[in-house]
Amino acid sequence: MVVLVVLAVLAIALALWFFTTYNSLIGLKIRVDNAWSQIDVQLKRRYDLIPNLVESVKGYMQHEKDTLERVIKARSQAIDASGIKDKAQAENFLTQTLKSLFAVVERYPDIKANQNVLKLQEELTSTENKISFARQYYNDEVGRFNTSIQVVPANIVANACGFTRKEFFEIEDKAQKEAPKVQF
Fold first, then answer.
1. CA atoms within 13 A on the CB side of 37
2. What number of other Cβ atoms are within 10 A of residue 153's Cβ?
3. What gap in Å lies between CA 151 and CA 32, rounded to an integer?
4. pLDDT at residue 154 is higher than 90
5. CA 22 to the chain's CA centroid
6. How many domains does the chain have?
7. If 0-12 CB within 10 Å is exposed, 13-18 middle and 19+ buried, where does residue 125 land?
């Protein structure tokens, strides 16, 4: 009889541990998903600003059409990218094309003095900072989640319930790890 009571108490304790651990992992997964959605919000803001910037400088830069087309193409690729790795690569390409646009704009004093361009530049700089913070938050949450599903004994629950590692949002090109310098 005592053995049955001890086994029942152990079973209940094991079940409580399992459900508590499972709920904790679900909470961490939701935080990772939320962090990713914060990146998406900032990227959408960035995507919305780019056409306005291109339109603002288009009249001044008729002979720089190639640069403008590359920016629009990079924006489209970034919007269409799916998955963390593809999104990161597309964002890296977009950042590079924006840098080339800003380098071209530097050669045009009329553009640098245009109030619309200055306002868009300020908004884009602010958005780039927000994207950076959102990436950092996302990567922090991914780190917490990945650690939680790998440590003993939570890894038992994670493996049993199909939790898998999340990808970090990483920049592969070392030159792109620096914030874009936007000056008009």
1. 6
2. 10
3. 18
4. yes
5. 26
6. 1
7. middle
Residue where the block lists tokens 């990436």: 135
Domain harbouring 60, CATH code: 1.20.1440.20
Q: What is the pTM of this model?
A: 0.76
Question: Using an 8 Å Cβ cutoff, are 102 and 68 in contact?
Answer: no
Please report whether residue 82 resides in a domain.
Answer: yes
Residue type, 120: L
Residue 124 pLDDT class (50, 70, 90 cuts): confident
Cβ-proximal residues to 180 (8 Å cutoff; 6+ apart), any chain = 95, 98, 99, 102, 128
Q: How much is the average pLDDT of 71-80? A: 92
Domain boundaries, position 44? 2-177
- Range among 1-5, 14-18, 48-52, 166-170 with highest mean pLDDT value: 14-18
For residues 114 and 54, the answer to whether their CB atoms sit within 8 Å is no
For residue 90, tell me if it sits in a domain. Answer: yes
Match 């008729």 to its residue by tokens: 62
Structure tokens at 20: 């508590």
The confidence score (pLDDT) of residue 184 equals 46
